[in-house]
Design goal:
- The chain is an alpha/beta fold and 496 residues long.
- The protein has 14 helices and 27 strands.
- The radius of gyration is 23 Å and the shape is globular.
- α2 crosses α3 and α7 crosses α8.
- The strands form 7 sheets. It has an 8-stranded mixed sheet, sandwiched between helices.
Length: 496
């Protein structure tokens, strides 16, 4: 075993092959040596501004080379990167910065926050400008951040929280890489780097010497073009992305050479079975790998395409003793019975800590993210919805993800979200928000859509009302805030 800090690992990679590309985003590319040099310069600037060991540094930078420079610079000081969306509305950003309480916020104007220092990306200094008189260019000390990341919640509660990793910024550089990453490979990342999945896959690939090709934002055809151009061998996707790639004209989709691709990871939202089937048929079951787990990382399940074909709808078989399904009283239920999913670490060690929230726990170290599901007789886990998203309508439990999966199968639908709205007769009615595909010939026919859904779902699950919207309902990471969508409609009558 040879455990080294993340900065030491990046420096060793640069020494071994300084000119190999480290990160590419659109027309910008940076080599391993350039990444180290630019991060070193920014780290010295941050140190002069008062950033120290263990501090949070909020990173409000969109997908770019600069995002990786900023993250590496924070690691160099033994501090913790705290990434947020660069497009957050002011009040949301204020709330998250208030929780993190950083001295410095990267990617914002100098005067963006009273009492804090903002550093826009245009001011990221190179090493020659950043060396202070006091250090005369002496190497920065080799430090290990106590938490290698602290992303924000991807949940739907609307309450801000940070999820601080329980893992330090160090790795065994002699160990086999995780996540099916290969050393010195090429990772294609079309997801937003403020979300946990893209952070994990991109950073771990970078630390294994991969050339990380990150898209400025997701574009279906540009993703395929990046694989073909850079000979990508591994990619991170969410089902929303998979659907939009699949919906490309077949002559476009099949015009790109994807022969270099070894692994297609997908996670972060439920994948409709029809879409999973389509990708398995297209690229083969051995390439399609699904992961289920939270940012909290208590445990995770992984399922290959081949195993999924034998356990359709499953997200994988958890390690023994790490997942159980319970009734509302916390009693474990038999196989095949749906309940709340509880997880715990296989080692018993804490894998995270919250800032701004408290975990839901049961005795014995069990924690819940609010998901519902069941285990089959073979121990494979199947998921429903989160407890907070379930709709009780006419005495029946309805899970939005099931309905959304059917609606998304319709060729006229680009994205959708299903919520429950108050109803005098049913208690709650199933309400669907639909973002149509851009109309080629005719606009989306709502009656035809409902008939399509009615052929696939029992009547009480078919939406009673439909609202057409012209903005995306899911972000680039496939996340939907059903709670916020519902709250925004409680004072208005939805369009029918």
């Amino acid at each position: 075993m040879s455990v080294v800090s993340y900065p030491r690992r990046l420096a060793d990679l640069a020494a071994a092959d300084p000119d190999r590309p480290a990160v590419t985003c659109a027309a910008a590319s940076i080599s391993r040596r350039e990444l180290i040099d630019r991060a070193d310069g920014l780290a010295r600037r941050l140190r002069r501004e008062g950033v120290g060991y263990g501090d949070f540094v909020t990173i409000a930078i969109p997908n770019s080379v600069d995002w990786f420079v900023a993250t590496a610079a924070v690691w160099m000081l033994g501090a913790t990167p705290q990434p947020v969306s660069a497009r957050l509305p002011g009040p949301e950003l204020d709330a998250l910065v208030g929780l993190a309480d950083p001295t410095v916020v990267l990617g914002v104007a100098a005067d963006a926050f009273t009492g804090r220092i903002g550093i826009p990306t245009a001011d990221f200094a190179g090493p020659a400008d950043a060396v202070g008189v006091d250090d005369e260019g002496a190497p920065l000390p080799d430090l290990v951040s106590p938490a290698w990341k602290a992303p924000t919640s991807g949940g739907s509660t609307g309450r801000p929280k940070l999820i601080v990793s329980g893992e330090p910024a160090s790795l065994d550089d002699e160990a086999r890489p995780t996540l099916l990453v290969q050393r010195d490979g090429v990772m294609i990342m079309p997801g937003p780097l403020y979300h946990n999945g893209p952070i994990v896959w991109s950073c771990q690939a970078l630390l294994q010497g991969n050339h990380v090709v990150v898209l400025p934002r997701f574009d279906a055809e540009a993703t395929l073009a990046a694989i073909a151009e850079h000979r990508g061998d591994i990619i991170y996707l969410v089902p929303t992305m998979m659907k939009r790639i699949w919906r490309l004209p077949i002559e476009v989709r099949e015009s790109y050479d994807l022969s270099s691709l070894r692994v297609v990871w997908h996670l972060a939202e439920p994948c409709p079975p029809w879409l999973k089937d389509a990708w398995i048929d297209w690229l083969g079951p051995e390439r399609i790998i699904e992961l289920y787990g939270g940012t909290e990382a208590q445990t995770a399940t992984i399922i290959t395409g081949r195993d999924w074909l034998e356990h359709r709808g499953s997200v994988g078989r958890p390690a023994e003793g790490t997942v159980k399904v319970c009734d509302p009283d916390g009693a474990e239920v038999p196989a095949g019975t749906e309940g709340e999913v509880w997880m715990r670490s296989a080692t018993g060690e804490a894998t995270y800590r919250y800032v701004g929230a408290e975990a839901r726990t049961l005795e014995g170290g069990w924690e819940s993210l609010g998901d519902h599901g069941w285990l089959d007789a073979d121990g494979f886990l199947y998921l429903g919805d989160r407890t907070t998203d379930m709709i009780l309508t006419g005495g029946s439990n309805v899970y939005p993800a099931e309905i959304e999966g059917v609606i998304q199968e319709h060729p006229g639908v680009r994205s959708c979200a299903v919520i429950g709205l108050p109803d005098d007769d049913l208690g709650n009615r199933v309400h669907a928000l639909i973002e149509p595909e851009p109309a080629v010939d005719d606009p989306l026919d709502v009656a035809e859509l409902l008939a399509f859904v009615g052929e696939r779902l029992v009547r009480y699950k078919v939406p009673r009302t439909v609202e057409l919207v012209d903005e995306p309902l899911r972000d680039d990471a496939g996340k939907v805030r059903r709670g916020a969508l519902r709250a925004a409609r409680l004072t208005d009558s939805p369009a029918g």
